[in-house]
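Researcher: I'd like a structural prediction for the single chain below. Treat it as a standalone chain; there are no partners to consider.
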Amino acid sequence: MVASRYICRAKGTFRSRKRLILRRARRLRERDDKEHSSKLRSKLPLQLARLSAAEQRQKLLDWLRADLCNGQAHDRDDPKWKMPALTSDGRTTDAGPTLQFVFRECNIGLSDEGLMQLRRACRLAFALDGSSWMPCKGAPRCFAESIALAIFEHHTQGAHFDPAKSGAEWWGQVRNSGDVEEGIQCHWDTDEAAVERDAINIHPHLSTVTYLTDCGAPTLIVDRRNPLKADDVPKAVYGRIKHGLLSPPSIGKHVVFDGQLLHGTAPQVGGLAAGQRVTFLVNVWLNHRPSNCYRLRKSMALRLGGQGLSLQLTPLKPVAKSLKDPAEVILETTFGRCHHEHKLSVPLPCSLSETAVLDWSSGAELKPLE
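Model: Treating it as a single chain, here is the predicted structure.
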């Protein structure tokens, strides 16, 4: 009994000392947190206090952008960028017959947690206004990189390319129904450095859209290619358009198309749910990395998180639905690289519930803005 009592007292003394140590450690952490917060509060006003609320927000986004872009500004020269050798059709390499350029679609299976993580990554990437690079031989450090790499591999099976120079460019788009900037202006995906320095249009082999919500405007793609020489754009792109694709948002839907094609959104099409349109965009680049597109810093990748989450891509299939001469609503939109100089007019259905190839015998046209 005596020995037993001493053992109990010893255990009690140990527990008391353990609680005391834990209380002291907690107080030290709280003190350190207060000191750290105090230091932050003393530094931030020096840089932000005299700025307006909008300027403060922009300053904070600039700091985050520097972190996201590995300290590189988007408008700086990229010292490692080189003009790639191009094929006769303007491609950065001949990837062989297994890489297809036709309109196709599939589904990306995501868990609820995976969907939430990817939406979060898209919102952050969109706020920071930039794209990121995922080398095809790199190890993903966050869920967004895992999906970008999975998409790259899904589309390049059997293709010929140099893995050391190839990868996925990814970013997010977030648009709210009813906003002035709800629509995404028609554009061609290009490497800006090649256009600025050499007046050459270099495009990804493939462009893709993955929808993370059921809301917002459908994606519109038209069969109008950007010419190799930027100076040839007016005379090369104007005229009648025969084919296109219209894809309304649907969670998990993944659409792929030729990276040389003109695309944007069509907010005028009705019958779609209002709300926030969130999409994950991935361009497949072979034998070339676009200028000023860098991999996420490790610290930023850790913030995005999601490592270990699963995803599954279904086999790619051609778009089954086809619409001949839809003429229920006429979309008229203007666009341009530096200023609005082109006008696109295309007949569209007034509502659409699934992806459809559009065939026009007349009425679809791209012309100069007068």
